[in-house]
Design brief:
This protein is α+β, with helices and mostly antiparallel strands and 182 residues long. It has helices at residues 15-29, 31-34, 38-45, 50-58, 100-114, 126-134, and strands spanning 6-9, 62-68, 74-81, 86-91, 119-124, 138-144, 150-157. Helix content is 33%, strand content 25%. The longest helix is centred in the N-terminal third of the chain and has 15 residues, at 15-29. Residues 5-159 form the N-acetyltransferase domain.
Length: 182
């Protein structure tokens, strides 16, 4: 099912709606990950305030975008740092499987290339990892998030010379993980 939406730059004026989107996506869409455990949920939501979101959207070192429906509803948001980290990528539970997440990631990849970033990385709750893997991210294994929940560390090369299975001049396959950013 395809949902109509536009991708646009996020502004601090979007902070309140974006914060509500983040919180709903985590509380409802990531329920399998926090399993309703109050301590995990509180830690995960702890920095998801309108003031913090406005600060994230205002930072010149971040590329923050939103997916907006024709009626003005925010359906998703994504935040890329200049270090190549996809710090946020969330979609309203009602808008999942409508192309919103893919469109947000595509826009972030375009910005990353404009910034000459060669590799993206992100931490994903396990329930969302398969989505990121379908978008070309490689799962590098388990890690612990800053709020104590197990997450998957994923990365994606934006440099064709570092792709999995890419051959070196001698014909040997490159190693599975390479540090293309240096």
């Amino acid at each position: 099912m395809s949902t109509r939406f536009e991708i646009r730059q996020a502004t601090p004026a979007d902070a309140s709606a974006a914060c509500a989107l983040l919180r709903r996506s985590i509380e409802v869409g990531c329920k399998a990950d926090h399993a309703g455990k109050p301590a995990v949920l509180e830690a995960w939501l702890g920095n998801k305030t309108a003031a913090n979101v406005a600060t994230w959207f205002s930072s010149s070192s971040n590329y923050a975008i939103v997916a907006q429906s024709p009626d003005g509803t925010l359906l998703g948001l994504c935040l890329l740092t200049q270090a190549g980290k996809v710090a946020l990528c969330y979609v309203l539970p009602e808008a999942l499987r409508g192309g919103v997440g893919r469109a947000l990631l595509d826009a972030c990849e375009q910005q990353a290339r404009a910034w000459s970033i060669k590799k993206l990385q992100l931490h994903s709750p396990p329930s969302a990892s398969a989505f990121f893997e379908r978008q070309g991210f490689m799962n590098a294994g388990k890690d612990t998030s800053c709020f104590g929940m197990e997450s998957d560390l994923l990365w994606k090369s934006l440099d064709a010379s570092c792709e999995v299975g890419a051959s070196s001049p001698g014909g040997a396959a490159r190693k599975r993980f390479c540090n293309c950013n240096g």
